[in-house]
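Course assignment 3, question 2. Fill in each field.
Student: A.L.
Task: Predict the tertiary structure for the chain below.
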Amino acid sequence: MEQMRLTLGKKDFVRAAIVGNKINRKTLQEEGMEDHKIKFFTLMSEFHRHDQDAFELAKDYHSIYMTSTVQQIEDQWKEALASTVLFLALSPYSMEQQDMLHRIRSDPNLEKLPACQSTISSLLTKEIISYPIPYQTEMESLPAFLMGGHDLIAFWKKSFRTRIIQHNIRVASAYYQRIRGKRLAQLLGLSNEELESELSSMVSNREVFAKIDRPMDIIKFKQSKSPEAVLSDWAADIGTLLNLVDTTSHLIQKENMTQ
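Answer field:
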């Protein structure tokens, strides 16, 4: 860890990552290693902040939060938990990110942080949310958000807005099979150009399925099935129906025999 501190101090982030990988995370979980664990993940947060990796930052702060010595000091665990929620909100959508959000939502300590509780609730609710979200100013005033200089703060602010837009597009894709682009832009509070740009980015990253009919200004979220898939679904439905008819006939015959 002293090597990590020196390499990070020299801004040699490549070597810092190599040195960091030599440290066994399981050893840090052992009793008596609490101070080393906090120091290690603090150094890792500096590295991941340079990489602008929000999800890894969330995991770093959550590891600090789960340390027994931090749990005993209210100010420290509150800051660590709030930082975890902040960077989860800034993280790209993934199953791992969603799983972590659900686990933190069930944490009883979250009730003591209304801003964090509201943020997680907004991200996990399948409803369109407005930007800025409630308590966003409070979340953006956290020390973890303000580290790294003006360029990084501007990047986090832009990411925050992007994540809200992406959340809203995923919600729209769940409720609409097709919708006019102008109407969707109105619902999300975006310009047509900004909506198309973000939607195209999400489609390229395979985060959502969509097709845009520009002349008709129609966005289709439902993926068309191939004739083979339609036939397979029809055959499966017919098979289920015949099984139900057969079971019903058997029960009727059984009742007749009993009577």
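Instructor remarks: The radius of gyration is 25 Å. The first helix runs from residue 2 to 9.
Grade: pending
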